[in-house]
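Problem: given the chain below (468 residues), write out its structure.
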Amino acid sequence: MTDFTMTIDGQAVQTTGTFGVVNPATGEVAEQAPDASREQLDQAMAAAAAALPEWRRDEPARRKALQAAADLMFARSEEIGRILTLEQGKPLGDATMEVIGAGVWLKYFADLELPREVIQDDDAAFVEVVRRPMGVVAAITPWNYPLLLAIWKLAPALLAGNTMVLKPSPFTPLSSLKLGEVLREVLPPGVLNVVTGGDGLGAWMTSHDVPRKISFTGSVATGKRVAAAAAPDLKRVTLELGGNDPAILLDDADPAAVADKLFGAAFMNNGQVCSAIKRVYVPESLYGDVVEALAAKASAAKVGDGFAEGVQFGPVNNKPQYERVSELVADALAGGARAAAGGKPIDGPGYFFEPTILADISDGARIVDEEQFGPALPIVKYNDLEEAISRANGTHFGLSGSVWGTDAERASEVAARLECGTAWVNTHLALAPHQPFGGFKWSGVGVENGPWGLYGFTELQVVHRSKA
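Solution.
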């Protein structure tokens, strides 16, 4: 086993206690991760607070450090990618690309302008609006893209002049621990602190008196608890929560032409993407062809250990999520749905589940109404487009959605009626560092990425200089 350490004040820190990290391809504990004490969290918060005054003063140094951090991600992508595959399960090529993506995001923010806006310059006064750092940021990240989503927070927060204490999911702590270790080479002590532990550690972080901002990615239920914990201290929050993202095919869509994109956007990362397609609405005239095309792709997909050659999809990341996907699919089949492909767990060790296409199903089935977050996709038939739009919007979620059709203008008009943070036309999961990402309704508060994500880590300050 490898010796993984936390990062506090630029130093490698051990803990008295540890917890097991399971390889989802085997279902067995593969490594031990540090289990931070309350006192160690206090030390991390104190280190971040102590590093803040110097870090916030020197913007060129911050940009240089982020550039250097990006270069380290590129240079060590395979090394960190192997750790990511071990703990998360995704194929090694995908894991390596996640690390490279982290470098791309770091490069983007290293070059992003921090604006200063002059709103008055006359004989009476010079008035400027500037963006100031908030202070210490507590960042809590999920298990589906543990490294990339950590960088979505770290890069803009640090550019803005904040310091950070990062806590990854206890299912995937190792890649973030490695991130902290690697970035000790280029970040001053205390600027980034990485601590690991269970849900109790997250609760300590959100109620701690040091952070001025909490940036959380995870479930709606936990996001509500984070918001409640932040309220007494009026901490600022960004909450990127769940999604039940619809895709609507119009009657002029070509099933053969869109099947690849639909399948890829539904099953990327084995369906474990908050903004992946979670349900597809298809007009009756196209229904059979769409189900057949998607089922063929699901049946042909290669599932296995992420370290094996040619694997498209690894295991579901953890046992609770594996059991949830299994339960939702079984519930759908018991309710009369048909498995056009897949439909059950794969025999053997690990948390493997067949890529599943569910047909003859409608709203009211749990797997349509809830977020499955796994390799199972319900295909819902509709006869009236207005009804399909209403059903697509008839949920507490509002993260993203997509509309597909040959007439792009018509598809765009329909997409504009989706109640979600991102509405794609003839594509889905087209994410980029310059593009804001966030949700309506229960899918979140605030946005990440682009200048808007950067602004979320700042406070506005008016600087008013009298000339009278």
